[in-house]
Amino acid sequence: MPQPVELLQALVFATVILVFTTPLVAIVAERAGFSAKPAIETGLLLSQTSELSLVVALQGMAAGHISPGTFTVVALVTA
Q1: How far apart are CA 29 and CA 24, in angstroms?
Q2: Nearest Cα to 44, choosing from 32, 59, 33, 29?
Q3: Which among 11, 43, 61, 75 could bridge 25 via Cys, Cβ 3.0 to 4.6 Å?
Q4: Taking the model in full, what pTM does it have?
Q5: How far apart are CA 15 and CA 32, in angstroms?
């Protein structure tokens, strides 16, 4: 079971990903010639983290570079 501090960290990281990545990708898409609606949809779709994050974090944990708590935060943000 995740610790409260890990849940808080995951919530903060997930919020940062949604708040900053979505508008940034939407702005780039609009400058690339997309209209507003497809640009925003693209931003929302690309603001997700992927399963690759889990693979990289798992390898980092196996190699001793990150703690199990950090892996838990990555897993919660990715989920």
Answers
A1: 9
A2: 29
A3: 43
A4: 0.67
A5: 26
- Helix 22-31 / helix 36-46 crossing angle, nearest 10 deg: 140
From the CB of residue 3, how many other CB atoms can be counted at a distance below 10 Å?
11
Residue with tokens 């960290």: 9
Q: Which two tokens stand for residue 31?
A: 């400058």
Mark 12-38 as b/e (b = at least 16 C-beta within 10 Å): ebbeeeeeebbeebbeebbeeebeeee
Nearest partner of 24 among 9, 34, 39, 3, judged by Cα: 39
